[in-house]
Amino acid sequence: MNFKKIISFILAAMMFASVSASARTLEFTMGEKTAYESDENLESFEIENAPYTKNDRTMVPVRVISEKFGANVEWIDSASQVVITTP
Question: Cα angle vertex 38, ends 37, 39, to 5°?
Answer without folding.
Answer: 130
